[in-house]
């Protein structure tokens, strides 16, 4: 085939163009740190990378939720522990009073006041908050769950209401349904794929309903102390209440166990997610990021080829016959 | 009998021809870099001896020829290679244009590859929206979290609007490019017609109009990149060029292509699949007055070339044709899906009650009520839409008008987090119950669950999976186009090489020829001198013996 200068130049230029394009590709990879500079470089890789990123975002969200869950469960646990010890002291007071403590009206007064204070301490403990939210209140997180009922004049009575409901009254059907509805309202967060974790328990679970309601028991004891019955009868009835108090204590302990289990699950999930985040970051990095050493090598090779083509081309396109004629 | 000056004539013809050949060589060298130039060669033939009066000539048996005659200056050009080139130029023009234009679309979605959280991609905006949703679930009555959700939702819709706007711009550009290309075609046709006249006139004398033909061929090359043409030359040197069977240039006459605006001016209509149409130009043949013809038979049949690439990209509404309207329609579908599904769940939830002071004027036409102390408040209600939709017609939503409902933008209390009606302090529900559950976020959780939906076979079928498909499809399409374009470049490169091999000027060859012709000229000059001396002897020295 007849070859002309023009053809040599054209072919030289087009090969130069190819080499430059390769160099450009590696330069772009190096300067951006990414293997995939444009979508069309590797569409399948783009798909995998987006999937990995989405997984990572999910894990980050779960981890954030776990932090909130942990805050709630830790507060819950510490409150329940406090309650447990309070109940121990209440029981010992009652045992004391039942056996030897009540000698006169003055003692009865003192015991009534003490019980009242202890009852209020329990109430206040269950009104605890994490941040702005009341954690024992079910969905009613912006208001105190346990309040005193008001009488006709607006003064506080001894009855303690939960979200406006009297927990000791389960014979009234309307009340009972309302209480059951309240009991089911626990806050839950997503801490895994299709995994909702209940992070709260309501005060109903802690204090019980109907005759087993702790506040009712306490109010009964206070009422007994303030009543007109004789001292011996009072002592006898007092020991009868010990059974109820034991029941209340057991309930609190079982709630404590539940809270502890929740904390354990949070720990397990947290650890698992930390590992998963590392794994997925690795996967994502494998797809997206360049191996600097490899890319620099490729770039160097492309540069060498480019220089070679420049030098060879320069030698070929310059001389003509005129250089050799006298 | 032979003429006296016969020899001089022979030498003169040789000199003349050598000069001519040197001229041709000079012309070739001068044009070594000219685009489209075909090397020329002088055709010579030896002149036969004079045949008149041969019966009277005394020395017919030893008569010689009369020297050399220059016949024509010919181009060395292969018409078949030309035809092959133009075919490939067609396809190359198509794929090249398509690649360059679709590159702009790919650029729009490239931002999903960025890893920073400040990237402007839809992907990031969607994730941001989901994160804001999740934080609101933790504390549904928090005003800050609600405002955050509203802002992130607005970022999402604004990102959609931005991408859609750019797609519209691209569509507009393609439309204008069509008009510009048609103008170019008409200009080239005009030039070809002019050249036809000139070539015809020149060649009446029997010479070949080589350089004019080169210009005409160059124009044909350019034209074949723009649109698919058929052409043929008749015996008089007139070139006829047809597009889709109709003549663009016919001798010195030409017909024009024109663009006919369709659709309403400056109006955006919404079609079933392709949601962008503007003043779309259709390519038609012009009538006698140069105006685009309204006759449907006069629609131009364009099948390849750059013009077809512009048309395909502007009009492609399906996955096979993959034009800008298809890309836009995919985006629109995603926006519609998000708006419809989220609205449907949101409308089932209940808003937070708020007072007149909180409302900032956006009360969504809700009924109000009054508290015991006289404050006007708006109770918790349901049926509120999160995203703007016109009269419940989701098919009217495009990525361009995708927006958060204006009521929610002004008043974030209207975000329906709760699954049950909430009450205000001291007020009871209609059924006599008191419900102050500010912590109820069940409706929000239902909205968040939409983000991890799966279809019947268990494969993910949610917003992120659809977005992923959308993005990777664009990448795959561009990859495909670039592969075709690369293959096409290789093909056309080999034909260009073939053409150059036949027709282009080689300096070394021309220099060699130049040396040859110079020698020939010198030799002819010597012959002339020799003849001259002969005649000199004859005229001045014969018959002077003894003088």
Number of DSSP helical runs of chain A? 8
Strand percentage of chain B: 5-15%
Number of strands of chain A: 7
User: Which CATH class of the domain at 77-272 in chain A is shown?
Assistant: Mainly Alpha
Helical fraction of chain B equals 40-55%
Q: Which spans of chain A have pLDDT < 50 for at least 5 consecutive residues?
A: none
From the alpha carbons, calculate the radius of gyration of chain B and give it in angstroms.
Answer: 41 Å
Q: What's the CATH H-level superfamily name of the domain at 77-272 in chain A?
A: f41 fragment of flagellin, N-terminal domain
Summarize this entry quickly.
The complex is a heterodimer of chains A (326) and B (547). By secondary structure, chain A is mainly alpha-helical.
Structure, described:
The complex is a heterodimer of chains A (326) and B (547). Chain A has 326 residues and is mainly alpha-helical. Chain A has a domain at 77-272: f41 fragment of flagellin, N-terminal domain. Chain A has helices at residues 5-32, 43-101, 105-126, 173-183, 203-207, 214-226, 231-288, 292-317, and strands at 129-130, 133-134, 146-150, 156-162, 165-166, 188-192, 195-198. Chain A has a 3-stranded antiparallel beta sheet with strand order 3-4-5. In chain A, strands 1-2 form a two-stranded antiparallel ribbon. Chain A has a two-stranded antiparallel sheet with strand order 6-7. Chain A is rod-shaped. Chain A starts with a helix and ends in a 9-residue tail after the last helix. The model of chain A has no long low-confidence stretch (mean pLDDT 87). Chain B has 547 residues and is α+β, with helices and mostly antiparallel strands. Among the domains of chain B are: 4-76 and 505-541, no CATH class; 122-162 and 326-447, no CATH class. Chain B contains 12 helices and 11 strands. Chain B has helices at residues 6-30, 79-109, 122-138, 143-203, 210-226, 306-315, 324-346, 356-359, 406-410, 442-449, 463-503, 507-541; strands at 40-47, 67-75, 230-233, 239-243, 246-250, 253-254, 257-262, 280-285, 354-355, 369-370, 376-378. In chain B, the strands form 4 sheets. A 4-stranded antiparallel beta sheet of chain B has the order 3-4-5-6, with helices on one face. Chain B has a 3-stranded antiparallel beta sheet with strand order 9-11-10. A two-stranded antiparallel ribbon of chain B has the order 1-2. Chain B is rod-shaped, with a radius of gyration of 41 Å. Chains A and B meet through helix 1 and helix 2 of A and helix 3, helix 11 and helix 12 of B.
